[in-house]
Every structure is written in structure tokens, then in C-alpha cells.
Design a protein that fits this description.
Shape: globular
Strand content: 15-25%
Radius of gyration: 21 Å
Number of helices: 15
Distance between the termini: 21 Å
Strand order of the largest sheet: 4-3-2-5-1-6-7-8
Number of domains: 2
CATH architecture of the largest domain: 3-Layer(aba) Sandwich
CATH superfamily of the largest domain: Mur-like, catalytic domain
């Protein structure tokens, strides 16, 4: 999609990341505050917010609702960020909405994410969705999405990421995430470290908001490749189309949010529709397994330290080992522990490709990798440095290893999948 308004949006990336709500409030006011006219669910978390959003979306669609979904970043094209009932926004619609926004805000120095957030609210309002699931971009308290007054708020997890903006310890990050909690609004907290729970309880008391904690108010267990949930209701032997042991927390948060919506008289829960939805739900880049040229490819956007830890647990549980690891990582804030991330997975692998790739954010370069890799014993695992994704794909599919794990940044996974599609007619 090439046009002047999309170019204008892309140029807004020059404004960088600027946490704060003043600009987005001004933008939305000029657009007559469309976010006030839609019901929302607000989801934050270091990891899992995308999967939780998609699970909840699929369940609500199966219950007969018109559901908006706003997520970020996108994998292939910007349209993916704006969905209604599994259909992404059309190119000409993006053009029209960006035109409206640009003409309204004139020279106001808005960021890329602020503009896309305004577009989402305007789009969902004009399309009259029954409810919109809004995923935080980063943090919570000062995130541009934090202007909504949701039916329920969800905080899926707390881990180390975006420390330049959110703080360098988990308590500070938890405080920022807790910023999405609104007065009197029920909120859900997924599986987090016990020492962080008081941060959310304190905020709940101050805001007079009902709080629901994983492993206290609702539970999830994995048995015989199926999930057992217990909250207000008990659902046994749920089959989730998402693979990966870490998805249990996301499923539990989504089901608890559904129960809260029922308590608010938004819907009557149908176990039949829940089961149907969970078998159908799909999210590219989340522990997907594909076959190509007699190889098994496992693709996962485990883009931070906690994501890598969760990924490793799932790999061990599924006995996926002795693989070729193909890895590319962004490091936009310069503080991502990319060497630790590599070490988490390297014990399960037989060989590693460390890659450079196209990205709007700064990446970990081959030079940066080389400086760190000297600490790893050469006889531990063979490491190769690959200049681009095209070369990594070609070499990987010609290498002797049957199992291949592709992981790291969403931008890296996106680039890898684009090469597969172009060179091998791969359809995911």
C-alpha cells in the first residue's frame, strides 16, 4: 500500500517513543472522542497480551458479537493491527481514516503509535463494534491506549522488557502495568511473582476495583495435552489450537475476562462456543509448527528474556531438541540481554545461526554478537553469523538438521516468513 497518507504515518516514526497521554487525548478530542462510544477490554502485560486478546476475540465472535481487535506490532502489513471479526481493515479504509486524522490534527507532533491508536478507535466506533479488545503497546500507565474506560482490564504477565521506559526492576514495571486499572473496573492479573502481587492489591484498594488473581481466584492446569480451567465455572479437557505450554496463562486470563463480562450482563457463556472457538483460534508467530522440504519448522516470537524462558519450558515439554536455532533480535533501547537470551536456548540446540535482518528498530548486529560469543566454548555448539534472512533460510533448509527453531524479534520472524513465501511459495 503506497500513498501519501501512509507515508505521512511512517514519517511519524521520526517522533520516536514518547510515553504520555496528553497528545493522544488532544488527538481524540479533535476526532470527537470515538473511544467513549465503544465498549472495550484493555489488555497489558510483558508477554501474552496478544495471545490473550486473540483467544478472547475468537470466543466472543463465536458468541455472536461483532468484535474489534487492536494489536501491535504487525507481522506483515499495518492492516493486521485493525481487525473486526477476523477481517483486517482494507487499504482504502486506512487511507481514508489517515486522511481524516491528518486533516484534524494538522501539525500536531503525534507519534506513530498514537496515530494508529486513534485510527483504531475511530474505525471501531464508525463500524459499530459490540466490543473492542485493545492491546497496550508498551507499559500501561502512559501508554496511548490508556484512555479507555474498559469493562475489564487484564495484566497477563510482568517481566523485563522496555526497561529504558518502564524501569529497571520488576516492581517498577509492575507499577507501570498497574496504571491501566480504572476506578471500579474489575481487573485480572495473570501468573506473576508473588512479591509483585501487593503492588496490584494496593492499586485495587485505592481504585476500589475488584481484583482477580491467577492461582487464587482462577486456575489452569495442563493434563493429557488438554487444559482444565476453574474459576466461576469449571471447563475440563479444553483443546486449544495454540501450542506451547506458556499459553495456559493466556487462556486462563481470557476465560476469566469472559466470566466477568457475563457478570456484567454483557453475554451468557456457552461452553459449546468456547470449545469451538479454542479449536479454531490461530495466531501466526506463536509456537507454530510447519513442514517444509522434509524439515520441521517451529516459529515463535519470543522477543524478550521471559519469552525465551517460557519457550524453553514448552520445547522441553514437547521434546523438541537437537535443533538448528535461527535467531534474530532487536535491541532498540540498547538494554536487551540478548546474550542471556541465546544461552537459554543454546543447550537444546545443535547449531546456531545468528542473523541480521530488516527492521524499523535497531537490531543486534553481527559485530555485537561476535563480541559476546567469545564467552561460549567453541566445542559447545557450532555458531554461524548470517548477514540476512534470505541466506539464513537457504542455508537452514539445506542443513542436515531436521528440526529448526526460528525465534526472536517479531520483525525477524516476519522477514523470515516473507523469504519463505517468496522463495518457496510457503503459506502460513
Amino acid at each position: 500500500m503506497k500513498n501519501s497518507y501512509l507515508d505521512w504515518l511512517n514519517r511519524s516514526q521520526l517522533h520516536g517513543i514518547k510515553p504520555g497521554l496528553k497528545r493522544i487525548k488532544n488527538i481524540l478530542k479533535l476526532l470527537n472522542n470515538p473511544h467513549h462510544g465503544i465498549k472495550t477490554i484493555h489488555i497489558a502485560g510483558t508477554n501474552g497480551k496478544g495471545s490473550t486478546s486473540v483467544i478472547l476475540k475468537e470466543i466472543l465472535i463465536n458468541h455472536g458479537f461483532k468484535v474489534g481487535l487492536y494489536t501491535s506490532p504487525h507481522l506483515f502489513k499495518i492492516n493486521e493491527r485493525f481487525q473486526i471479526n477476523n477481517s483486517i481493515i482494507e487499504d482504502d479504509e486506512i487511507e481514508e481514516y489517515l486522511k481524516v486524522i491528518k486533516n484534524k490534527i494538522e501539525d500536531l507532533p503525534a507519534t506513530y503509535f498514537e496515530i494508529t491508536t486513534a485510527l483504531a478507535f475511530l474505525y471501531f466506533f464508525e463500524k459499530k463494534v459490540d466490543i473492542a479488545i485493545i492491546e497496550c503497546g508498551m507499559g500501561g500507565r502512559l501508554d496511548a491506549t490508556n484512555v479507555v474506560k474498559p469493562e475489564v482490564s487484564v495484566i497477563t504477565s510482568i517481566g523485563w522488557d522496555h526497561t529504558k521506559y518502564l524501569g529497571k526492576d520488576l516492581s517498577k514495571i509492575a507499577y507501570e502495568k498497574a496504571g491501566i486499572i480504572k476506578k471500579g473496573t474489575p481487573f485480572i492479573v495473570g501468573m506473576i511473582k508473588k512479591n509483585l502481587i501487593p503492588i496490584f492489591q494496593k492499586k485495587a484498594n485505592r481504585m476500589k476495583s475488584p481484583i482477580f488473581l491467577a492461582n487464587k481466584d482462577f486456575y489452569i492446569k495442563f493434563k493429557d495435552n488438554k487444559w482444565n480451567y476453574k474459576g466461576k465455572y469449571e471447563f475440563l479437557n479444553l483443546e486449544l489450537n495454540f501450542k506451547g505450554y506458556y499459553q495456559g496463562n493466556n487462556l486462563a486470563c481470557a476465560l476469566k475476562a469472559l466470566e466477568i463480562l457475563e457478570d456484567k450482563k454483557f453475554l451468557a457463556i456457552s461452553e459449546k462456543e468456547i470449545r469451538k472457538a479454542l479449536k479454531e483460534v490461530f495466531f501466526i508467530g506463536r509456537y507454530n509448527i510447519f513442514k517444509i522440504k522434509n524439515k520441521t519448522l517451529l516459529i515463535d516470537v519470543a522477543h524478550n528474556l521471559d519469552g525465551f524462558i517460557a519457550l524453553k519450558k514448552s520445547l522441553i515439554k514437547d521434546n523438541f531438541k537437537d535443533f538448528l536455532l535461527i535467531l534474530g533480535i532487536t535491541n532498540d533501547d540498547g538494554e536487551k540481554p540478548f546474550y542471556k537470551m541465546l544461552k537459554i536456548l543454546i543447550t537444546l540446540s545443535k547449531k546456531v545461526y545468528l542473523c541480521e535482518f530488516d527492521s524499523p528498530k535497531k537490531i543486534v548486529t553481527l559485530d555485537q554478537w561476535r563480541k559476546k560469543i567469545v564467552r561460549i566454548k567453541k566445542d559447545f555448539v557450532k555458531i554461524e553469523f548470517i548477514e540476512n534472512c534470505e541466506k539464513a533460510v537457504k542455508m537452514g533448509l539445506e542443513d542436515k538438521y531436521e528440526n529448526i527453531l526460528i525465534t526472536g524479534s517479531i520483525y525477524f520472524v516476519s522477514e523470515f516468513l516473507k523469504v519463505l513465501k517468496k522463495s518457496y511459495n510457503f503459506i502460513c
